[in-house]
């Protein structure tokens, strides 16, 4: 039986996608996420989120946020990366002006369409530099607000897997920090997107990218290559 290691705990429905395909699964959280208190800006016109974790951390402090951030009926405009991030914002009453699959795409859109606006970028302590660097290069005003911390949770695995599922560059680094994980027969690293894949390629050439930036798409790609 083919086997898969997921570097993120999967939901029951996500696990079934693998089990129903006759693939055994081990899952764990390769990274830990901790929400941190943050000082709320007095006003926000445009907010940027590149992950669900940032949205959850933001909502966790909702009571201390100014009225312009309270969601439905507010004037704040949301810009985000990922369909799941967009859904989480909309479920909480926020208006999403633009969603892209990748941070690089969102950065380009902001430069092209919102050059004269100012932004608040709600993010974690480990985040890609694509959006901040692009905004700085084009002299677009923004304030970065750290709302959560990511820490690595390295774990040693004595057994071998046919594929490893990765959902962030941090997850790749966490798994690969335990060097013994890299001396077994080389598995396929299945990555959620190009940024994660770039990190994975530092450790192996056996990397494939999911068709969409969702957990389900990563699983589907793994099932396809292992059949």
UniProtKB/TrEMBL annotation:
Q: Which GO terms are recorded in the biological process aspect for this UniProt protein?
A: uroporphyrinogen III biosynthetic process
- The Tetrapyrrole biosynthesis uroporphyrinogen III synthase domain extends over 17-219
Gene3D superfamilies per record: 3.40.50.10090
One Pfam family recorded for the sequence: HEM4
Output the Gene Ontology cellular-component terms.
Answer: cytosol
What Gene Ontology terms describe what this protein does at the molecular function level? uroporphyrinogen-III synthase activity
Q: What is this protein called?
A: Uroporphyrinogen-III synthase
Q: Which organism is it from?
A: Aequorivita aquimaris
């Amino acid at each position: 039986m083919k086997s898969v290691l997921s570097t993120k705990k999967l939901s029951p429905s996500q696990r079934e996608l693998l089990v129903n395909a006759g693939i055994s699964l081990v899952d764990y959280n390769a990274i830990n996420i901790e929400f941190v208190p943050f000082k709320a800006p007095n006003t926000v016109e445009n907010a940027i989120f590149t992950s669900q974790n940032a949205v959850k951390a933001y909502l966790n402090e909702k009571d201390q946020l100014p009225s312009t951030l309270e969601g439905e009926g507010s004037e704040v405009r949301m810009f985000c990366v990922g369909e799941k991030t967009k859904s989480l914002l909309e479920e909480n009453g926020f208006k999403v002006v633009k969603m892209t699959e990748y941070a690089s795409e969102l950065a380009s859109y902001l430069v092209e369409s919102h050059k004269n606006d100012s932004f608040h970028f709600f993010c974690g302590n480990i985040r890609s530099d694509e959006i901040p660097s692009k905004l700085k290069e084009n002299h677009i005003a923004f304030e970065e607000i750290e709302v959560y911390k990511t820490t690595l949770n390295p774990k040693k695995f004595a057994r071998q897997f046919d594929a490893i599922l990765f959902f962030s560059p941090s997850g790749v680094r966490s798994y690969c920090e335990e060097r013994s994980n890299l001396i077994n027969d080389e598995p396929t690293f299945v990555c959620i997107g190009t940024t994660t894949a770039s990190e994975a390629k530092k450790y192996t050439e056996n990397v494939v990218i999911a068709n969409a930036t969702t957990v389900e798409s990563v699983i589907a790609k793994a099932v396809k290559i292992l059949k």
